[in-house]
Each structure stands twice: as C-alpha cells, then as structure tokens.
Design goal:
Layout (H helix, E strand, L loop, with lengths): L5 E3 H4 L3 E3 L5 E11 L8 E8 L5 E5 L3 E5 L2 E4 L16 E2 H5 L3 E4 L5 E11 L5 E9 L10 E5 L3 E2 L10 H7 L5 H9 L3 H10 L2 H8 L4 H10 L2 H10 L2 H8 L4 H10 L2 H10 L7 H4 L6 E2 L5 H8 L11 E5 L10 E6 H5 L23 H11 L3 E5 L5 E6 H8 L4 H7 L1
Parallel strand pairs: 2-7, 14-15
Antiparallel strand pairs: 1-10, 2-3, 3-4, 3-8, 4-5, 6-7, 9-10, 9-13, 10-11, 11-12, 15-16, 17-18
Helix pairs in contact: 3-5, 4-6, 6-8, 9-11, 15-16
Protein name: Mg/Co/Ni transporter MgtE (Contains CBS domain)
InterPro entries: CBS_dom, CBS_dom_sf, Mg_transptr_MgtE_intracell_dom, MgtE_N_sf, MgtE_transporter, PRC-brl_dom, PRC_barrel-like_sf, SH3_actinomycetes
Keywords: CBS domain
Length: 412
C-alpha cells in the first residue's frame, strides 16, 4: 500500500487501525485537533479509535506511523484503553468542525465546511492544512465547492482576546516543552493550573519533565487522580519515577494502581533504585532488538518520533524477552555503524562489546564512564546479565546540575 502525507478526514472515518504486527486494533472514528490563534493551522493531537464493545479510545498522533488508502498503522507500544474523554482545547474534526459556517476571506461570502485535510509536515507533525467548503446554492441546488488552504477561511480560529485557557494555550503551541515550562512558571498559580488542565496528556507530560520539582508537585496535585495517572503514563518512566518518589507511600501507590499495569510496572522497577545511581537515573525503555533483527529493522526503530536523540543513538541486542528486564544482554550497536552496513546485515554481527554499567553504580562512576567512552547513552545490566535500562547523557546532566538550575535558567 502507498503511504499518504495528506488525507481528508471523512475518507479516514471507518478505516481499520492495525498494530505493527498486522493485528487489527479497531476502526478510526475521528481526529482530535487543537485550534490556534490567527491563521495558523490546527495541530492534530491524535485519533479516536473504536475498539471492542464500541469503546472509543484516544491514540496520540505520534503513535501513527502511516496512513494508507485502506488502513492506519500504529507504532509499537501499549495502547491506553481508557475511554476517550474530550478535554478543554480539543476539537473533533468530524464531530465539531464539519458543518461549521465560515467566511471565504477573498470574496467575504459564507460557506459550510464539508471536509478537512490533515497533512504531515517535514518535522513529522500532523496539521489541518486544507478545508473543503461549499457555498450556499440557489433554488435547492448545491453551491460551488472549494478546496482552500486553512488561512483562506475565517471563522474557525480561536479569538486573540479573552482569558480562556484555550486561547492562552494556542499562543504556546509552537513552543517546545522547555520553553513552555518557563512560560508556565511566570503565570500565577491558579492560571498555571488552568493551563495544565487544558493541555493534552502527552503535552503536559513533556512539560512536567522540564519543571522544577515543587512546580511539578503542585500541578500534579491540582489534577484529578485519574487524570494524574493518565499523564504519568505518558511520561518517560524515569521522569514518572522521579516525580512519584517525592510523594507519600499512600499517594504513590494509589496513582500506580490507577495506571495501566503495563505502564506502571517499569515505573515500579525504577523506584527500587536509589536516585543517585545508574538504576535511579536510567530509562527502562531503550531500543531493544532480538539477535535476528536486521539493520533495516534497527534503523526503522530509531526513527520513531518519540525517541530522544540520545536514546536513538544506539540499539541494544538481547535475547527474549525484549521488555526490561530482558533476556541475556549481548551488546549494543551505534547508529553510525549501522549506517555504514548493508540493511540486510544482522545487528548482532556489528555489536560493540563495551562493558555495561551496573544499576548500583554511583553517579560519579556513571559520569566517568560517559567521559571515558564519549557516549550519549549507556546500557545498564544487572548481575544476572539482563538489560534493565539505559542511561542517557541528558539524565546525567540533570542530576549533576544544581537542583534549581531550571529556575536559574528561567531568570536569566
């Protein structure tokens, strides 16, 4: 099948949705977008998928690897099967955008939205870039149909004035997580919590990872417990573990129970380690491959958009199972080496046998390890030879800097 970079949402409705193994997950029912201020194209946040028993769930757009004429394919990973609940600042394309009355900017004539096209940008983000609109007809006939760029139509953007959280969020859409975190810290506490409530789970999870500990705790406490659990599921396991470690045992266990078991288990494992050791700062979700995986498969895995550059710099080869803690750890392969080899070559044939870190290794030893071998990520293996995670250089720097380094950076 041919992967498309632009598709009209009405044609996507009802398409089957498959996981990477070809197993059917459900059917696509709608696309969730975030409107913006002015003429900026709305960002597609995710899709609504109907699974068994007509249950509708939300799948972030980052999990969509391809849209084909006859199917939608998702990336690997656990699906959150909680029932979809629309949040503030979210708009359903089929449910709310279609049939809206708009104004054609060039002619100033009214028209009705009959379809909307989502398109993938060069950065991998999906946006609503075009609209199909129809002018009113005469004597019962259909009016003229236009396919226009989003900026050629007025009446759908958020207003530039007013104090609604949706409008404020729309002004922050283009900010990366770190800059948005800085902007949130400049807001009054009440306003900050309103904006956090209106952010989607993935966006809020990214921002929480960039905030000082006290601000993280305040925002988490302001959320309903079920929402807090959803956001923790979207966070990197190491960031979620760091945040939960600051809570009381009662609060921590309650949130872990509310999380999906597959999402909570890696966090529970990380909470076993001291925060100033390799085990305490590692992530439990590096790129792990079986010994029979090819270089082509490895390169496809490191292209997944949710991976940080440091974690995408190398892959780890282990015997099954492939989830941490894995089977026996065999070695790692650097992305530069993979790019120099034929795609059909087995990854296990180009492994670096670098001695891995132990979970109990103190931060000083981890720092020396990175400096000695000029790495941006390193494997962590337990005394049974199993890969339990990987430490990335950004995690090391985060623990070496003073606790208030984010606050100092914000001030100047």
């Amino acid at each position: 099948m041919t992967t498309v970079s632009r598709a009209y949402v009405s044609r996507l409705a009802g398409l089957p949705v498959f996981d990477p193994n070809g197993d059917r997950v459900g059917r696509l029912r709608d696309v969730v977008v975030a409107l913006r201020v002015g003429t900026a194209c709305p960002r597609a946040l995710g899709v609504v998928v109907e699974v068994v028993a007509r249950r509708r769930i939300f799948v972030p757009m980052g999990r969509v690897t391809s849209i084909d004429p006859g199917a939608v394919v998702l990336a690997s990973g656990t699906l959150n099967l909680k029932r979809f609940e629309q949040r503030r600042g979210e708009t359903l394309v089929l449910g709310e955008l279609l049939d809206r009355t708009v104004t054609l900017r060039e002619s100033q004539r009214p028209a009705t939205v009959v379809d909307a096209a989502v398109e993938q940008t060069r950065t991998g983000e999906w946006q609503v870039t075009r609209l199909a609109v129809q002018e009113p007809g005469r004597l019962g006939r259909r009016g003229q149909l236009h396919q226009l760029a989003w900026a050629e139509v007025a009446g759908l953007a958020l207003p530039e004035t007013g104090q609604g959280a949706e409008t404020l969020i729309a002004t922050y859409r283009e900010l990366n997580a770190a800059d948005l975190a800085h902007a949130l810290q400049d807001l009054p506490e009440k306003r900050r919590h309103e904006v956090a409530e209106a952010l989607d789970d993935q966006r809020l999870a990214d921002v929480l990872g960039e905030l000082p500990e006290a601000t993280q705790m305040g925002i988490l406490a302001s959320l309903a417990e079920t929402r807090a659990a959803d956001v923790l599921e979207e966070m990197d396991p190491d960031d979620a573990a760091d945040l939960l470690s600051e809570l009381s045992n009662v609060d921590r266990n309650r949130l872990l129970e509310l999380m999906e078991p597959d999402e909570a288990e890696p966090v529970r494992q990380l909470l076993q380690y001291s925060e100033d050791t390799a085990g305490g700062i590692m992530t439990s979700e590096p790129v792990i491959l079986a010994p029979d995986a090819t270089i082509a498969e490895a390169l496809a895995r490191v292209r997944e958009p949710e991976l940080t550059p440091s974690l995408a710099s190398q892959v780890y080869v282990c015997r099954p199972p492939s989830a941490t803690p894995t089977g026996r750890y065999l070695g790692l392969a650097h992305i530069q080496r993979l790019l120099r080899e034929p795609p059909s070559t087995l990854v296990s044939g180009v492994l670096d046998d670098l001695e891995p870190l132990r979970p109990e290794a103190p931060l000083t030893e981890v720092t020396r390890y990175f400096a000695t071998y000029n790495l941006v990520a390193a494997p962590v293996v337990d005394d049974r030879g199993r890969l339990v995670g990987a430490v990335s250089v950004d995690d090391v720097l985060d623990h070496l800097l003073p606790e208030d380094w984010r606050e100092r950076a914000r001030r100047g």
